[in-house]
Amino acid sequence: MVEALDENKQRGNWSNKWDYLLSLAGYAVGIGNVYRFPYLCYRNGGGAFLIPYLLMLCVLGLPLFLLESAVGQFSSCGSVSLYNVCPIFKGLGYASMLVNVIASTYYSVIVSYPILYIFYSMKPSLPWSSCDNYWNTEGCHDTFPEVFNTTLAEDTPFVLPPEDQKVSPADEFFHNYILEISGGIEEPGKFVYPLVCASFFTWIFVFLCIFKGVKVVGKVVWFTATFPFVMLFILFFRGVTLPGAYDGIVYYLYPDFNKLLELRVWVDAAVQIFFSLGPGWGTLVTMGSFNRFHNNCLRDSLLVPIVNCATSIFAGFVVFSVLGFLSHKLGTAVSSVTTAGPSLAFITFPEALTLMPLAPLWAVTFFLMLFFLGVDSIFVQMEAMVVSLVDEYPRLRVRKTLVAFISCLICFLGSLSYCTQGGMYMLQLLDFYAVPLTIILTTLGEIIVFAYIYGGGRVVQDLQVMTGRVVNEMWYFAWIGFTPFVLLFILVNIVLSSSTQLTYKEYVYPSWATMLGWLTAIASLIAIPIYFVYYLATAKGSFAKRLEYAFKPTPVWGPALESHRQDWTEYTLRHPLPDRFLHPNFKGAIPRLSTPRP
Description:
Blueprint: H1 17-28, H2 31-35, H3 37-43, H4 50-75, H5 91-121, H6 169-178, H7 193-210, H8 214-224, H9 227-240, H10 245-253, H11 263-277, H12 283-288, H13 297-330, H14 342-353, H15 359-392, H16 400-415, H17 423-453, H18 456-467, H19 473-497, E1 503-504, E2 507-508, H20 511-525, H21 527-538, H22 543-550, H23 562-574
Antiparallel strand pairs: 1-2
């Protein structure tokens, strides 16, 4: 593929369109597509869940994806400098950076788990296949002892004895051997050194992928973003050929339309779309900022979200075909082996792998897929954070490699708190409190800034200047109405659910841990009011003038290159908007630019 010369010589551009698309696909398609969506689908009505899921894609996912990609491409800047459009809200950019740091520290540890599983899978038999290991307890129950000596051709299921506080070998391998888990968050314990080493490897890998910017990232994703899809297809064809796979798939997709009457189903659909596509982190803005000014971001913003959602649905076939096989061999219902979250990826699915011929091979395949699904999300997030820093503080641009190194080092050191025996409890706490509230609020603030302060009409006009195409009113109405409403809907749900008592397995978090969770959420959100006060205190002029200019774009807002800025200025002068809130089409036909398009 021919690589184009950089349009923006100072910041650089993507070498070609596919580098950009694969980077976004690698970022959006993560571990959650494998272990969260399939569970939500079966829990919320099977195939019927696709109705609210796809509806939320249209009214929430696509509009936010387009908005962030478009404003990043238009301004050619990261998530902090983006708020030159409304300088008093620059704290939103800093808040997204801070929550990026928090999330990257613990998410990197989750991504490190597959590294250990890959290492321990390189043996004749998988170490979590029996209770004959030193880390097993008296409560360990070898769920299918004689199954290991059979072949798949023998179709006789193993019937489970009555339940009485039994724990599977895979469960004890994960908690007692991988995590060496303590009794609770109040018992941090010692460092788990294999996990520390795995986390160190992950951060070395991330640094090597981002230290030269998007030129390297764009090449790395050709492997890291495509390899999981190859593995997913291999696991799919293996899964659907297993006995019991059909029952699992039917259980996954059988529609229960009565579920659509439950509010929780719609909440789950909105939350899944929002967190799987990843708006609010500054990543979509930053990746879009490396596009050429006249790139057709309208087309790109349809392609990546659709690929993401299709991957989630397809991953459900992989997961539930294997769960159907597991339930078949155990002689039990699919519902009894269905779990969500890390338990599915690191306990239930590994259990099923032990039943397959060549189990170590399939285990390595599965955990390699998980690692690459997770790691490219991290290095795209880290690249976004580094770019946001050097864009806001241009003197750092010549030392971008050093900025990347220090950023990765800080995140690695932060990840060590999750590599202790009590690390899983801290990980669950921050995942529950610190991230969701901040990301929802920063995204809501972002759309308020662009739709209601800068003006939805201006956003549409800027998009038309870039693409030379008339922007459909559908996007406009989503930005000013539907999407903010759904974000408020998610925000209310998150606040209400945060009042519930947090647990992990049988452990109930103490009240002081809940307070700590809320403090971590405030730690990133506090950047918003702090910058608000800082701006008003340091801006020039009377207080009335400061307040007036606080909500207006600064002189640097607009296209980065002078030629594009001139085209933009001339276009807006020739076609003035009657009001910044109104779609340009509302005043009649909009002439297209004559700029040639790629």
